[in-house]
Design brief:
Layout: H1 16-23, H2 25-31, H3 40-44, E1 50-53, H4 59-73, E2 78-83, H5 94-97, E3 102-108, H6 121-138, H7 148-158, E4 160-161, E5 168-170, E6 174-178, E7 181-182, E8 188-189, E9 192-196, H8 206-220, E10 230-234, H9 244-270, E11 276-283, H10 284-293, H11 299-303, E12 307-309, H12 323-336, H13 346-353, H14 363-369, H15 375-386, H16 398-420, H17 426-436, E13 442-443, H18 445-455, H19 460-463, H20 465-475, E14 478-482, E15 487-489, E16 505-508, H21 520-527, E17 537-545, E18 549-556, E19 559-566, E20 587-596, E21 601-606
Parallel strand pairs: 1-11, 1-12, 2-3, 2-10, 3-5, 10-11, 19-21
Antiparallel strand pairs: 4-6, 6-9, 7-8, 13-16, 14-15, 14-16, 17-18, 17-20, 18-19, 20-21
Helix pairs in contact: 1-2, 6-8, 6-9, 7-8, 9-10, 12-15, 15-16
């Protein structure tokens, strides 16, 4: 075992593509952890073809892992990765080129291309046919039987003339069709006709393009697949809420990409081509944006039953056995390990690397409370530690956690910003973040409304209050907190929707609080100048009792207010004599239920212990 410091731990990169580019494939595979709920076999041999999840949940990483898994099962397997960032197809691709049966390509589209289009299925079908032909050529014709049916298919595909560089395809505005005919003298002529893909009209020859794609699909259904496994892995396509035309065009592109992939996999199944499949990663927030901003064409019906959602929530959330914590332990173990040496046990690593508590909280619980149960959180955590002033430490001491806290919070906020770009403009994102900056870490709906009306009356939060809050909840920016029972609700822990009510509080995620200049100390100082709120937990001193009421006082951060408890709010059973349950001078733990205007008192409910 090597003696290492925090800065020596294998961190990887926030993006799986970057990690493989710069760190290598072997390190990536060694540190990969499969989420427990993920049915990989359904992706490899079943009908599932989509990997869904929020940003940072490991969708792209799972594509690479699946490719490696397929290759381990059958060394003859061929795969093709399609990305929507062309720079990845260039950067250090020797990591892939050394495997002769793995291909890389990219598809891009310029900002001013096909902005008026709302249908892209035929374009996608054409691009995938081109990809299949190119891959078969790249793998020395080993994917499909070279017979009359294959020749017929490739001949049809070749009639559609697009960009020459198949490794770096650019979706064009215009293409050419070469449709041959024989003149009266018997000479075969193949004139080229222009097709403007942005115009669907007879004069534009678009119908000829459509017919060729349909003919290609019909021909492809008759080709014979060889025994060599062939997979196309398609990485997620982004869409950013900036320029409205570009944004909607990109959503149409993504929507129809999903429909096309489902269509192709159906063709593979019906044509008994069992060892060929297209697997695609899709961002949950992009699917939400499609349903929200464009005609979705019932997209959910296409993905439902065919997706493997990446979720990392786990019942034992305060344990090092949580899969997210296992990622951290695995990276430490690999970094410590000498060549051909076995890894230390989790128990040994935990004892060496972590204190008993961090700010009086068990270490794994502290890390998970500051995460969204995503692998990328652990990468960000390690990198923040390595960039801190205590990076030479030989363990994750209290000092290391304290020194990384601010940068980790800032980087986490930037991650949320990126996710918000699928829903809001840059200006709207800054307005939303400004609403919460310097406010409070836990607050009521009424307090938030008052702040917005006073300082941000023209912001998107003022005009779309509930919608923005629900978006922020889905993205993990905020959660719910119920003071009476100290119950928390978070999207990443399986709680589907935000509760907006007087009794429930809204809470900013703990990892974001430092970046937003909020926290418990700040909350306490602000509460001293505020009035009580419905849902607040307060200490109630009994002063007097009557047949149906207990009267007394509540102490709210140094200020005293008159209050009462009705007999029905004292216990969950019938009460014959109120004095059997309370006595004068006693202090009760209560929750505020309303303000009684008639008696100018706060009405309370006793919290059952």
């Amino acid at each position: 075992m090597k003696k290492i410091t925090v800065k020596d731990i294998y961190s990887g990169k926030p993006d799986a593509k970057d990690e493989i580019n710069f760190e290598g494939l072997s390190g990536f595979i060694k540190t990969f952890i499969v989420p427990q709920n993920s049915d990989l076999e359904s992706l490899l041999t079943g009908n599932h073809c989509f990997i869904s999840g929020y940003k940072g949940t490991g969708k792209t990483a799972l594509l690479f892992y699946l490719d490696n898994l397929i290759r381990e099962k059958d060394s003859s397997a061929c795969s093709s990765f399609v990305f929507f960032k062309e720079e990845f197809a260039e950067l250090k691709k020797e990591e892939f080129d050394k495997f002769s049966k793995r291909g890389l390509s990219s598809i891009t589209i310029d900002k001013d291309t096909l902005l008026k289009n709302s249908e892209f299925e035929y374009i996608w079908r054409w691009l995938f046919f081109k990809r299949i032909v190119a891959d078969n050529d790249g793998f020395n014709g080993g994917l499909f039987l070279d017979n009359e049916q294959w020749s017929n298919f490739t001949n049809i595909v070749s009639k559609i003339k697009g960009p020459i560089n198949i490794k770096k395809s650019v979706i064009p505005n215009r293409i050419k069709l070469a449709i041959p005919y024989t003149d009266p003298t018997g000479v075969s002529i193949a004139p080229e006709m222009d097709v403007d893909l942005s115009k669907d009209s007879k004069e534009n020859n678009y119908s000829s393009f459509v017919k060729l794609v349909d003919d290609a699909e019909n021909a492809f259904s008759k080709v014979t697949k060889t025994d060599i496994p062939y997979h196309i892995f398609v990485d997620e396509l982004e869409a950013y809420f900036g320029d409205q035309e570009v944004f909607k065009r990109d959503l149409y592109l993504i929507r129809d990409l999903i429909f096309t992939i489902k269509r192709f996999n159906s063709i593979f199944s019906s044509s008994t081509m069992k060892n060929i499949k297209i697997i695609c990663s899709i961002r949950s927030e992009i699917v939400n944006a499609i349903s929200r901003f464009i005609v979705s064409k019932e997209l959910n019906k296409v993905t439902s039953g065919f997706e493997v959602p990446l979720k990392w929530n786990y019942n034992n959330t305060n344990s090092f056995s949580h899969p997210i914590m296992q990622i951290l332990l695995r990276r430490i173990a690999i970094s410590e390990c000498e060549d051909d040496e076995g890894y230390r046990s989790d128990k040994e690593i935990i004892a060496h690397w972590f204190p008993e508590t961090i700010h009086d909280i068990e270490p794994s619980n502290y890390v998970l409370n500051n995460s969204w149960n995503k692998p990328r959180d652990i990468v960000r955590f390690i990198i923040s530690a390595q960039n801190s002033i205590n990076s030479d430490s030989t363990s994750f001491s209290q000092a290391v956690f304290s020194s990384l806290h601010k940068q980790y919070s800032l980087d986490s906020l930037n991650e949320i910003r990126e996710e918000m770009r699928a829903l809001y403009t840059s200006e709207q994102i800054e307005d939303i973040i400004n609403v919460f900056t310097g406010f409070k870490s836990i607050f009521s709906v009424e307090q938030l409304r008052n702040r917005i009306s006073k300082f941000f009356a023209d912001s998107v939060m003022a005009t779309n209050f509930n919608a923005v809050l629900n978006d922020l909840y889905r993205l993990g920016f905020i959660g719910n907190y119920f003071p009476a029972s100290k119950m928390y609700r978070w999207q990443h822990k399986g709680d589907d929707r935000l509760i907006i009510s007087d009794e429930w509080r809204i809470m900013i995620h703990q990892a974001l609080q430092s970046a937003l200049s909020v926290g418990k100390k700040h909350d306490y100082s602000m509460k001293r100048f505020e009035k009580p709120q419905i849902g607040d937990v307060v200490s109630f001193e009994v002063k007097a009792t009557s047949k149906s009421f207990v009267n007394g006082l509540i102490d709210y951060y140094g200020k005293v207010y008159p209050a009462y408890i009705h007999i029905s709010k004292i216990a969950d059973t019938y009460i014959h004599d109120i004095n059997d349950y309370v006595t004068e001078g006693e202090e009760l733990r209560t929750v505020i239920t309303e303000y009684d205007e008639r008696w100018s008192k706060w009405s309370l409910r006793k919290i059952q212990e």
